[in-house]
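SAMPLE LOG
Freezer: B-3
Tube label: C17
Construct: single chain, 230 aa
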Amino acid sequence: MSELLSIPNVEVDKQRVACRLGYTSALPSAVNKAIDEALDKAKDLISSRGIYNLKKIASFSGESILLEGGVSFTTVKIGSYLVKCCDRVAVFLLTIGHDLEKKVDKLMAEGDFPATLVLDAIGSEAVDTAANYLKELIRKSHEGMEITPYFSPGCGDWKLSGQGSIFNLLDSSKLGMELTESYMMIPRKSISGIFGLGKVDRVTEAPIPCKFCSYKNCPNWALFHSKKGF
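STRUCTURE (predicted):
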């Protein structure tokens, strides 16, 4: 059974927004002010919601991971990792809604490119922050189990077309989400993916596939190789 979750307005980290804009040291005063103003406006433009379905792992063929009910995902690296440390996966969809995206499009149409870039970066950070919040909600609902980072179609060797299986399993209409023929999500600031769940010792001891992955644009890769880790 799928569980629909309303996620409280997440607090977007200003420094992480700055990093998305290419600033890794002290911010110029104008940029600092622009981010502060955009963060204040974004509070009324973000409405985070998620839905997930917990499924037992049935088998792994070496190429595809099969879940109970016949749902399967083709990924060697992620699949081989999950079967080593997890018994279940939480298949999920998450979005921060349409409002911020509409505001970004409006700013772009008006030619306000700096404001467009800042608000878009806030949206990207907001949906990643909401995913971490969703992770903790799932963890609390399944005491005694550890949860892995999330993995999404398009990460590593999991093709973007894998989003079709996720949308077939979950009722995306409850979130106002759609999937295009080219497997792009609407609203854009959305995430589809899976979390693995297993016994604490198995999950914490298993080597994360991000360690061996070269896809540096993935947020999991960046987090794994940061000082914070997962």
